[in-house]
Write a structure and sequence with these properties.
The protein has helices at about 5-10, 10-20, 25-60, 65-100, 135-145, 150-155, 165-180, 185-195, 215-220, 225-230, 245-250, 310-325, 375-380, 400-410; strands spanning about 120-125, 145-150, 160-165, 205, 210-215, 230-235, 240, 260, 265-275, 295-305, 330-335, 345-355, 360-370, 380-385, 390, 395-400. It has about 425 residues and is an alpha+beta fold. The two termini are about 50 Å apart. An eight-stranded mixed sheet has the order 1-11-12-13-16-10-9-4. A three-stranded antiparallel sheet has the order 5-7-6. Strands 8-14-15 form a three-stranded mixed sheet, with no helix packed on it. It folds into two domains: about 5-100, Orthogonal Bundle (Helix Hairpins); about 115-430, BirA Bifunctional Protein, domain 2 (2-Layer Sandwich). The protein has 14 helices and 16 strands. About 40% of the residues lie in helices and about 20% in strands.
């Protein structure tokens, strides 16, 4: 949620920047409700004081109760109840309108109306020239019995798959490679220095987060896309949603907490099986394992102070590039425009890897910087050394979406006879195996 004081001070900018992100916000009505709320509060506080003073007089009267004081107390109670009900209605409307306001994009975010206006910041690596027509990953996997979507569809429906044999080993090799890399202070220090960032080389802590979360923290995280995207778990009374990505249960971990400053930055690398309905994608990426209802992800989450929020974002992007480079995959870095960065994000970067089977770049990574927008509703704060309490800043970023990464490796490392070469950096985690 955005700071109401920022809206008071910058109403025109809020309206314009919201529009740039594709949101039409009624700023005048929002400010009118805000003023109404502020006007109601002094009156309510005065009534509460009068009620308390009246109650004290009744208590201290002694002997026979003073009927006039009792009647006055009853009237004050009724008047206060009506005023509080009015305030509650105004606050409910105000809260509803505040939630329609997206985070403000940073100044370097390109202004654009659709994802077509995203900007290619750089391209790294050259797509391999094959002496044969490169295959899709499912064409490579079927003869080796590595993926079985037919039987998965039989028992779970479309967009599910059994991964088997060496492909499973490859997935967990990637997991081990990432955990070791993000736990290595020397790697982090190298990336910090290369990118001139004012950060400490604190390693990432591995986390296996819950795969479900309740509605209240999910809404507060600004990540709940309701049933259009997110699966509801169990019965309504269970009040649970299936995690749609590991950062959803990582960013909510410190809900309603005040953290000591020496805890920051908190850097997590979470591994989770995630679930998405993929509504509206009928027929899109139906083959293979690129777009699934169930998928595994390694996701980075960072809690920091406001001063280091942008640098943490840049570090996450540098880590993403480093990981992709280590796998030897051609990629490009995309600076997302205002319409594509998402409601809670102030800045967003995608990495698109090259998929020879499709002959094009496809999104494999995203990095999102939320400033204090997410933390405000989650009430995640930091107590500074001087005692001041402030909102933290949050970042999240993909380390690897494992299905897409497996697909990228299989297609980029395929041979003419249908084998798949294991990237060299992953071989130590597969007992030296060099080929699938």
């Amino acid at each position: 949620m955005i700071d109401i004081q920022f809206i008071r001070d910058n109403p025109e900018a809020v309206a314009e920047k919201s529009k740039q992100k594709g949101y039409i916000v009624d700023v005048s009505q929002l400010l009118q409700l805000d003023e109404e709320r502020r006007n109601l509060i002094p009156g309510i506080e005065a009534l509460r004081q009068q009620r308390n003073e009246n109650a004290a007089k009744v208590k201290n009267a002694g002997g026979k109760p003073d009927e006039a004081l009792i009647k006055q107390g009853q009237l004050l109670k009724m008047e206060l109840s009506q005023a509080e009900e009015q305030l509650g209605g105004v606050e409910e409307q105000l809260d509803k309108l505040l939630r329609t306001v997206p985070n403000m994009p940073l100044d370097d975010v390109p202004v654009g109306a659709t994802e077509d206006e995203n900007v290619v910041a750089k391209t790294v690596g050259e797509p391999k020239e094959f002496e044969f027509k490169p295959k899709h990953e499912w064409e490579l996997a079927e003869p080796k019995n590595l993926i079985d979507k037919e039987r998965a569809a039989k028992i779970a429906g479309s967009r599910f798959a059994y991964l088997k044999g060496d492909l499973v080993k490859l997935q967990f090799a990637i997991v081990q490679f990432v955990l070791q890399t993000l736990g290595d202070e020397k790697v982090l220090e190298k990336l910090i220095q290369e990118n001139n960032l004012n950060l400490v080389a604190k390693p990432f802590t591995p986390v296996l987060p819950p795969a479900m979360l309740r509605t209240e923290p999910y809404v507060a995280s600004a990540r709940l896309n309701a049933e259009e995207v997110t699966y509801r778990a169990g019965q309504p009374e269970d009040d649970l949603w299936l995690n749609a990505s590991a950062e959803h249960t990582l960013c909510t971990m410190y809900w309603n907490e005040i953290l000591p400053e020496d805890m920051l930055p908190i850097r997590y690398i979470g591994y989770s099986t995630s679930f998405r309905r993929e509504a509206g994608t009928y027929g899109k990426d139906a083959e293979g394992i690129f777009r699934m209802h169930q998928f595994d992800k390694l996701e980075m989450e960072v809690f920091s102070t406001a001063e280091t929020g942008v640098d943490e974002h840049l570090l996450l992007v540098a880590i993403q590039e480093y990981l992709v480079q280590q796998l030897g995959l051609p990629y490009r870095v995309i600076q997302k425009c205002t319409a594509d960065i998402g409601k809670p994000n102030a800045r967003g970067i995608d990495i698109d890897c090259w998929f020879p089977g499709q002959g094009k770049y496809r999104e494999t990574h995203t990095a999102d910087y939320m400033t204090d927008y997410q933390a405000r509703d989650l009430k995640v704060r930091v107590r500074r050394g001087g005692g001041e309490v402030e909102l933290v800043h949050t970042n999240d970023a993909t380390a690897f979406a494992l299905g897409r990464t497996l697909k990228a490796i299989m297609e980029n490392y395929q041979t003419h006879d249908g084998h798949i070469i294991v990237p060299e950096v992953l071989r130590p985690y597969m007992g030296g195996q060099s080929e699938l």
